Amino acid sequence: MTESLFDMPGEGGDRPDFAGIVSGAPLAVRMRPASLDEVVGQQHLLGPGSPLRRLVEGSGAASVLLYGPPGTGKTTLASLISHATGRRFEALSALSAGVKEVRAVIDLARRRLTAGEQTVLFIDEVHRFSKTQQDALLAAVENRIVLLVGATTENPSFSVVSPLLSRSLVLQLQSLSEDDIRTVLQRALTDERGLGGRFTITDEAVDHLVRIAGGDARRALTALEAAAETGAEQITLELVEKSVDRAAVRYDRDGDQHYDVISAFIKSLRGSDVDAALHYLARMIVAGEDPRFIARRLMIQASEEVGMADPTALQTATAAAQVVQLVGMPEAQLALAQATIHIATAPKSGSVTAALGAAIADVRAGKAGLVPAPLRDGHYAGAQKLGNAIGYKYPHDHPDGVLAQQYPPDELVGVDYYEPTDHGAEREIGPRVGKLRRIVRG
Description:
The chain is an alpha/beta fold and 442 residues long. It has four domains: 18-172, Rossmann fold; 178-244, Orthogonal Bundle (Helicase, Ruva Protein, domain 3), CATH 1.10.8.60; 268-345, Zinc Finger, Delta Prime, domain 3 (Up-down Bundle); 366-440, DNA polymerase III clamp loader subunits, C-terminal domain (post-AAA+ oligomerization domain-like). The protein is built from 19 helices and seven strands. Strand 2 (88-93), helix 4 (99-114) and strand 3 form a beta-alpha-beta unit. The radius of gyration is 29 Å and the shape is globular.
């Protein structure tokens, strides 16, 4: 299995033995939750009577797919399920295991079952399994030869085959909050499994560790351990910076700097200064800004500043937001940079913003007359008696796919909202819009 905060101690087949973790193991491994009470975050999945709590407490029997960002506890929950149910634990990584390894574990689980012993099969990065590998699991999961716990950072709806998806509970884990990360750090500082109270830490250092963690407990603990290994009795901001080789950016996510930097980012995008935009993006990333916030701003800018001058800018920004959700940081920062470069270098047009603003202004001014009768809904009994949908001309019946017909209310006939610029793609859209208006308006 690939190294992670929640890797299992011992050899394959051993039940998790948290007390057996050697003192020389990484801090993130030593601080692995040993019970449900130690799990930080994911309270939306661990409420009384929830499917996940029932599994962890040993009263559930369904296979599960745990979907969420790195460092949120997917593997820990798998081990706790195994420990609570008294089942044997087998772990595979989709990065290294093939169909042969899957079938070997299933055969072992089948032999154990005849002896009354059940097996939890944990598969890390399950989305990387091929369709053939996933299909090899189906019978064992359906017949409960194994209780499958799959972990994935990608949406299972798109990466797991439908038969396996339908046989499993899909539970989405969330990035840990700042308070959650603080709890993890404080426990590591005081717990005997961790640093055992041998160090003090300044508030600024804690704040920086929380920022660079990005909701990932493993990242926070790894950075804390790096600072502690210097031997200093007090862990300061400067010590953390030096240890993780990352300078702290004077950036208060709730203060003026937050608004100043995002404002400068937006204006650099609008002003087509790609280098300045990348600078401000880097400041936000290094300071630990929520990547979802950055992705939302990029999607807005793609429509507000670029619009129809380059319609693909919105596609790039939306794809970057999906990468943030499905992959997470730090890899997602590349997608954010790609979207930043696309928007900054794209031709600019405010026509979408202006068009919608003008239309909304008219609606608020009371210009919202009756929908023309031919355009009204005619899919109900009595519609035609009211004159609805009578006389509607179906554009696809015309060779050009467009014909003369009144679409807006009477008081808005002839009103132009969308005014294309001559920038980028709108250079071609403008003449087309003019031609379409002439045809439609007769």
